[in-house]
């Protein structure tokens, strides 16, 4: 039974849930149920409601391109540490063709990978099962994909959940990414990077 609309449900989450959970819920909703501008408009109608200031701050970060809670946590950490926000989910192509999809992309030439174990377990399951052999196949394919990105001149930076959920680690990750972005000022790459197709909810 539908009790509240998607907009009301998500805005309530933005008002009362811990920020990491609230943004993950809102990103998932923006990907599947209701476009981010509609969520922002719904928050603006909550004048005087408890938690509305917090909701306004979080709704400004909502992005339906993010595909996992891990990516949402990463976005919140980047915003909190003042790091420039990347474009989420991009397709990378080199001279030989399609290389793969990156979780995050900074225009300077840095590909970011939110490197959770669940991602590799899911890929192994798609190959027919989560066992040592299939996990090895997935990890080997990931290694080759990263090698191709690096050979085309891109920088690849990986992080784990603890790197964005722990405030101290998040500051360290942001500093590392800023350093890599600064180094890119003197480098070029031959890859073609385009946003992965994403159909916004109506």
In short:
The protein has about 200 residues and is α+β, with helices and mostly antiparallel strands. The protein contains nine helices and five strands.
How is this structure best described in words?
The chain is an alpha+beta fold and 202 residues long. Among the domains are: 59 residues, no CATH class; 77 residues, no CATH class. 53% of the residues lie in helices and 16% in strands. The protein is built from nine helices and five strands; from the N terminus they run H-H-H-H-H-E-E-E-H-H-E-H-H-E. A five-stranded mixed sheet has the order 4-3-2-1-5. Strand 1 and strand 2 form a beta hairpin. The model has no long low-confidence stretch (mean pLDDT 90).
Give structural attributes.
202 residues, alpha+beta, 5-stranded mixed sheet, 9 helices, 53% helix
Could you spell the SSE succession in H and E letters?
HHHHHEEEHHEHHE
Overall average residue pLDDT: 90
Name the structural class. alpha+beta
Sheet with the most strands, sense and barrel status: 5 strands, mixed
Number of strands: 5
Provide a count of the helices.
9
**Helical content, roughly?**
40-55%
Strand content: 15-25%
User: What is the strand arrangement across the widest sheet?
Assistant: 4-3-2-1-5
Layout: helices, strands, pairs:
Layout: H1 6-16, H2 19-32, H3 36-44, H4 52-59, H5 69-81, E1 87-94, E2 97-106, E3 110-114, H6 117-126, H7 132-151, E4 155-159, H8 161-165, H9 167-183, E5 192-195
Parallel strand pairs: 3-4
Antiparallel strand pairs: 1-2, 1-5, 2-3
Helix pairs in contact: 1-2, 1-3, 1-4, 2-5, 3-4, 6-7
């Amino acid at each position: 039974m539908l009790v509240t609309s998607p907009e009301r449900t998500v805005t309530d989450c933005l008002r009362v849930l811990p920020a990491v959970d609230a943004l993950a819920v809102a990103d998932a909703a923006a990907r599947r149920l209701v476009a981010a501008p509609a969520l922002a408009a719904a928050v603006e109608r909550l004048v005087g409601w408890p938690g509305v200031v917090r909701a306004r701050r979080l709704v400004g970060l909502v992005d339906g391109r993010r595909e996992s809670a891990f990516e949402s946590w990463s976005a919140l950490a980047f915003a909190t540490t003042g790091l420039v926000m990347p474009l989420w989910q991009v397709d990378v192509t080199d001279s030989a063709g399609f290389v793969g999809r990156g979780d995050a992309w900074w225009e300077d030439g840095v590909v970011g990978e939110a490197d959770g174990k669940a991602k590799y377990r899911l890929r192994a399951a798609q190959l027919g099962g989560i066992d040592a052999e299939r996990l090895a196949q997935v990890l080997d394919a990931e290694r080759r994909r990263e090698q191709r990105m690096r050979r085309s001149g891109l920088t690849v930076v990986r992080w784990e959940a603890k790197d964005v959920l722990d405030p101290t680690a998040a500051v360290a990750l942001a500093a590392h990414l800023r350093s890599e972005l600064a180094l890119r000022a003197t480098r070029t790459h031959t890859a073609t990077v385009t946003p992965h197709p994403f159909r916004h909810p109506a």
